[in-house]
Design brief:
Elements lengths: L4 E4 L5 E4 L5 E10 L3 E6 L2 E2 L6 E9 L2 E8 L8 E9 L2 E9 L8 E11 L4 E9 L5 E6 L2 E2 L6 E9 L2 E9 L3 H4 L1 E8 L4 E8 L9 E2 L4 E6 L5 E10 L22 E7 L5 E8 L1
Length: 278
C-alpha cells in the first residue's frame, strides 16, 4: 500500500460565533489522502440545507479544517455533534457537546422609532423584531401596562420569516397624559427584548403657541345671517398658516357657509384666527 496517513485530530475542536450570528464548529485534522467528512447530530447525519453547511479547508502539509456552519441559531440546536472522518488508512471522530442559552431570544430587525401621521394627530411608536419562537408583546408606561382604548391602539403584525411589527399609536397625544417613557417587551421562552421610547413635548423656537383659551362666539354675519365663530389667539414666527379640520379630521375649505379669518393682533407676532360657520 502506498504511503499515507490515517486521519486523526491533533487538537481539540472549537466553536465560535460569527459577526452575522451564525455558529461554526471546527475540527483540526491531519490525513493523507484527503478524508471523507460527515457530520452528525444525535447520531443523525446532517445534510446540507438553508441552515446547515459544511466545508473542508486545506491548510497544507496534510492538515485540514473541517467546519460545520449553523445559521439562524436556536436554543434547540444544542446537543451532541460529531465529526466523522475516514480515508483508506483509518478513521476518527471528534465530538462536540454544544450548549446554547438565549440564542432564540427576540432581536431587533428595525430599531425603535417615533413618528407621526395625520398632521401630528397620531403619534406612532414602532419597531420590528425577529423571533424564531412565538413571542408576546407587552406595552408599559412606567409600571402600568398600556391597554387599548379610544386613544391608544396597539398594533402587532407577523410579516413573515419570523419577523414581527409592533406599534403603539396614540390619538391626539397630550403632554399631561403621554409625556414620559414607554417600553415594549417582546418575550419568548428563550429570552426577551426591550424597546424603549422617550416621549417629549418640546416646542421648537418660533413654533406656534396659543396665547389664550379658544372661544366660541355668536354673531351676525356680514350678510345679516346668524353665525357661530371659533376664535383662536396664538403667537408664531415666519408667516404662520392656519388649517381648520372638521370633526372627522378632514381639512376644511371656504365656501358660502364657511369663512376663514387671520389677522395680526398688533402684539409681538400675535394673531387671531377665526372660523365662521353660517
Amino acid at each position: 500500500m502506498p504511503d499515507g496517513k490515517a486521519p486523526h485530530f491533533p487538537q481539540q475542536p472549537v466553536a465560535r460565533q460569527n459577526d452575522d450570528g451564525s455558529l461554526e464548529l471546527e475540527c483540526f485534522l491531519e490525513a493523507n489522502p484527503v478524508p471523507e467528512i460527515k457530520w452528525f447530530y444525535d447520531q443523525t447525519e446532517i445534510k446540507p440545507n438553508q441552515r446547515f453547511s459544511s466545508r473542508l479547508d486545506n491548510r497544507g502539509s496534510d492538515a485540514y479544517s473541517a467546519i460545520l456552519q449553523i445559521k439562524d441559531l436556536a436554543d434547540s440546536d444544542a446537543g451532541a455533534y460529531r465529526c466523522a472522518i475516514v480515508n483508506p488508512f483509518g478513521k476518527g471522530n471528534a465530538n462536540f457537546n454544544l450548549k446554547l442559552t438565549g440564542f432564540s431570544s427576540p432581536t431587533f430587525v428595525e430599531k425603535p422609532q417615533i413618528s407621526s401621521r395625520d398632521d401630528g394627530r397620531v403619534m406612532i411608536m414602532e419597531f420590528k423584531a425577529k423571533s424564531i419562537l412565538k413571542p408576546t408583546f407587552v406595552w408599559q408606561k412606567g409600571d402600568e401596562i398600556v391597554a387599548e382604548s379610544d386613544r391608544y391602539k396597539i398594533v402587532l403584525k407577523e410579516t413573515g420569516n419570523h419577523e414581527y411589527y409592533s406599534a403603539l399609536e396614540i390619538i391626539e397625544p397630550k403632554k399631561e397624559k403621554d409625556a414620559g417613557q414607554f417600553v415594549c417587551t417582546a418575550k419568548n421562552e428563550s429570552g426577551k427584548l426591550t424597546a424603549t421610547f422617550s416621549v417629549k413635548f418640546e416646542v421648537p423656537q418660533g413654533a406656534p403657541t396659543f396665547t389664550r383659551k379658544p372661544q366660541i362666539l355668536q354673531k351676525t354675519s356680514d350678510s345679516g345671517d346668524p353665525a357661530i365663530v371659533f376664535d383662536i389667539g396664538f403667537q408664531a414666527d415666519m408667516n404662520p398658516e392656519v388649517i381648520w379640520l372638521n370633526p372627522k379630521g378632514k381639512k376644511m375649505k371656504e365656501s358660502s357657509r364657511i369663512k376663514f379669518g387671520l389677522t395680526p393682533d398688533g402684539g409681538a407676532n400675535t394673531y387671531t384666527a377665526q372660523l365662521e360657520l353660517k
